[in-house]
């Protein structure tokens, strides 16, 4: 896990995160004027550092590197329990820093803003709202990123780490079904990416 402090090394002020954004790498330039205060970057292991962040204002960025896959592939890194634990630790650090209630803007991105980043955002929502019904968490995720198709492996680890007893995974199945009804092109897309197991998970 890499942590970066961009444009200034002063200790960050406690924050109450009020704006949540998920996007892909190509969308990052459009976010630079939106006062982003915290970034969680989920990158492929070989992906270079992103120059766009140099044009952002002062912010704090944490980078995790693993591939967007759900089955082992030669030369690629599966999302692991440790990766999701690092994401939840990132969330705990944010929550611990909100004492002064200053407004904050959290941006989570991966390659396309569809799978890894939405799984991370869902995990953080489930962490912050432990008593919220799982389907409501996914509804909130769709408000943040309508094209969300969270990585099922990551959601499964979050389910376990947050002691949701399988409820996040069951809600994920309903979310997949919802997304397929809204946009049937997900079927072709996920098949091409080798994610047929997630299509089979979807509740019709």
What does this structure look like?
- There is one protein chain.
- This protein has 204 residues and is of the alpha/beta class.
- It has a single domain, classed as Protein-Tyrosine Phosphatase, Chain A (Alpha-Beta Complex).
- 39% of the residues lie in helices and 18% in strands.
- The chain has helices at 81-96, 116-128, 134-144, 152-161, 167-182, 185-192, 196-201; strands spanning 2-6, 15-24, 38-43, 59-65, 102-110.
- The protein has a five-stranded mixed β-sheet, with helices on one face.
- Helix 1 packs across helix 2 and helix 2 packs parallel to helix 4 (152-161).
- The chain starts with a strand and ends with a helix.
- Residues 3-15 have low confidence and may be disordered.
Descriptive key words:
204 residues; alpha/beta; Protein-Tyrosine Phosphatase, Chain A; five-stranded mixed β-sheet; 7 helices; globular
Mean pLDDT: 90
Number of helices: 7
Level-2 CATH architecture: Alpha-Beta Complex
What is the domain tally? 1
Ends apart, CA distance between termini: 38 Å
Number of strands: 5
Helix content: 25-40%
CATH class: Alpha Beta
Unreliable residue stretches:
3-15
| Classification by helices and strands | alpha/beta
The major pleated sheet works out as: 5 strands, mixed
CATH superfamily: Protein tyrosine phosphatase superfamily
- The strand order across the widest sheet is 1-4-3-5-2
Listing every helix as H and every strand as E from the N terminus to the C terminus, the arrangement reads EEEEHEHHHHHH
Task: Determine the strand fraction and express it as a percent band.
Answer: 15-25%
**Cα radius of gyration in angstroms:** 16 Å
> Globular, elongated, flat, extended or rod-shaped: what is the shape?
globular
The CATH topology annotation reads as: Protein-Tyrosine Phosphatase, Chain A
